[in-house]
């Protein structure tokens, strides 16, 4: 059942995403971005193995997650931690 509090929270989130310029991203891309930030906060980086199992992305296909990573890299929202594959951080400019 959807109540008015949940609707107000969704509106608030949508407005915040717009304020941060995230409304141009797809829902999958936003969830991947949020998961990377959450993992970065917890572990210092977001490794793809952890990313695929994160609550925000666990129900997504692998290909959707990897496509989103590629898109977010092109948009300079995320970057590789080092030259190592599979470790990502939020870009400092984001």
Describe what you observe in this structure.
- This protein has 4 helices and 3 strands, in the order H-H-E-H-H-E-E.
- The chain is 55% helix and 10% strand.
- It has a domain of 65 residues: Winged helix-like DNA-binding domain superfamily/Winged helix DNA-binding domain (Arc Repressor Mutant, subunit A), CATH 1.10.10.
- It is mostly helical.
- The N and C termini lie far apart (35 Å).
- A 3-stranded antiparallel sheet has the order 1-3-2.
- A hairpin with a 6-residue loop joins strand 2 and strand 3.
Characterize this entry briefly.
The chain has 94 residues and is mainly alpha-helical.
Instruction: Report how far apart the termini are.
Output: 35 Å
Low-confidence stretches: none
Name of the CATH first level of the domain at 26-90:
Mainly Alpha
CATH architecture heading of the domain at 26-90: Orthogonal Bundle
Which range best describes the helical content: under 10%, 10-25%, 25-40%, 40-55%, 55-70% or over 70%?
A: 55-70%
Proportion in β-strands: 5-15%
| CATH topology annotation of the domain at 26-90 | Arc Repressor Mutant, subunit A
Query: Structural class, from secondary structure content?
Result: mainly alpha
Shape: globular
Beta strand count: 3
List descriptors.
single chain; 94 residues; mainly alpha; Arc Repressor Mutant, subunit A; 3-stranded antiparallel β-sheet; 55% helix; 10% strand; globular
């Amino acid at each position: 059942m959807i109540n008015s509090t949940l609707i107000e929270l969704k509106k608030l989130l949508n407005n915040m995403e717009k304020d941060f310029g995230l409304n141009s991203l797809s829902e999958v891309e936003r969830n991947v971005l949020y998961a990377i930030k959450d993992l970065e906060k917890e572990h210092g980086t977001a490794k793809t193995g952890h990313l695929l199992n994160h609550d925000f992305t666990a129900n997504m296909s692998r290909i959707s997650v990897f496509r989103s990573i590629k898109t977010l890299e092109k948009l300079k929202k995320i970057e590789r931690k080092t030259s190592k594959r599979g470790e990502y951080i939020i870009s400092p400019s984001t």
